[in-house]
Amino acid sequence: MSVERAADHPTFEIAGNTVTSFAAPARGSTETALFRTDLPAGGSLPPHRHDHFDVFVLLEGGATMHIGDTATQVEAGDAVVVPTGELHWLEAGSSGASLVVTMVAGTRFIREDDGTETVLPWLS
Fold first, then answer.
1. pTM score > 0.70 for this model?
2. Distance between CA 39 and CA 90 in Å, rounded?
3. What would the pLDDT profile of 103-123 be if each residue is shown by its tens digit?
């Protein structure tokens, strides 16, 4: 059993948002990654796709979830499953948004604006 203390979770910044990694392959979670993303009021994630599905639960705040051509309001406690390959992004509401996300380890992040693909550090 591996225990990682809260003070030891690595944090990252992406597009003005803070990502806190709870579990990743580099730290013993060989098949999945688990992380929290905190978006400031009015903040958003960039439009992107993944080569695997992802699942998140909104913990705090409110947001608009865009998947393909559909925009849906989500509130604390709501869960969203984003299908593989679907264009998606999240826009935080006026109080910001905090969400916990799980993905398959090594999932690729594919930016819509320039098509670049990368495995983000909290997924490897």
1. yes
2. 9
3. 999 999 999 999 999 999 999
Question: With bands split at pLDDT 50, 70 and 90, how would you rate the model's confidence at 2?
Answer: confident
DSSP per position, the chain: -----GGG--EEEETTEEEEEEE-GGGT-SSEEEEEEEE-TT-BPPPEEESS-EEEEEEEEEEEEEETTEEEEEETT-EEEEPTT--EEEEEEEEEEEEEEEEETTPPEEETTT--EE--GGG-
Q: Which two tokens stand for residue 110?
A: 């594919």
Give the sign of the dihedral formed by CA 83, CA 4, CA 43, CA 114.
Answer: negative
Residue 96: what are its φ and ψ, rounded to 5°?
80, -175
